[in-house]
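Hi team,

As requested, here is the filled-out complex form for the uracil run. I kept the field names the same as last time so the parser does not choke. Let me know if anything looks off before we queue the next batch.

— J.
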Amino acid sequence: MTELSPSLGSDAAAGEAPQRERIQKVLARAGFGSRRSCELLVQAGRVQVDGVPARLGHRVDPSANSVTVDGVPVGIRPGLVHYLLNKPRGVVSSAADPQGRPVVVDLVPAEPRVFPVGRLDFDTEGLLILTNDGQLAQRCTHPSFGLQKEYLAHVRGDPSPAALRALRDGVALEDGLTAAAQVSLLGPGLVRIVIHEGRNRQVRRMCEAVGHPVVRLVRSRIGPLTDRQLHPGQFRALTPVEVRSLEAATAAAAKR
Ligand code: URA
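And here is what came back:
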């Protein structure tokens, strides 16, 4: 029997490979809805195991097989953790700091070891993902996946319509013109900026370039992820549905 052959309801097969589970069960655990909805996904031909269309009852080993839905990898590998942290000001986005300053990994469990996905400046607050899932981290940070990040920038002064337009259309920075951004004025000196690039200190440099230096910067959204209940310094695990939505958002962005 090959790795991919379906073993429809066979307890003997389950005995041979106790770590293998039926595809619909694996998908349900990964956040694709009820077992029934997962069966429908399989029946619709949207699920592949190691590049081959899955059939109902297909048994997979989440640690060994690659499972995709609509071509997007399903985060089903055991041992992976994904945290959403509200990073406070004055914490470095790394695993260690040569200057001995507090680092973000000190704010989440030590085991399994995780790393921050991208970085927020020492003085920036807000949402940051920490994970040991290298594949997802790559999708969230690589420019080709273009994941959106939303920031609330408290700036000095009140940006004029022309300054907002410049932020929106692209600002000439020393490392080149910024891509088009979504920009809106939420209140006096408070600007919402959505970008999909990840250049160093990008939002601060954009605001500075239009004459409105940032006095406080908060990341309020990463792709589909928001959480207004999470206080600075707090973290929580992402739900399987959230991990899946992040994967789907990077896949959608890559197609744009
Ligand atoms: N842009 C910045 O300027 N700083 C951050 O921390 C994130 C985005």
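Two things worth flagging: Residues 120-121, 124, 201-204, 217 surround uracil (CB under 6 Å). Confidence is low (pLDDT under 50) at residues 1-17.

Thanks,
J.
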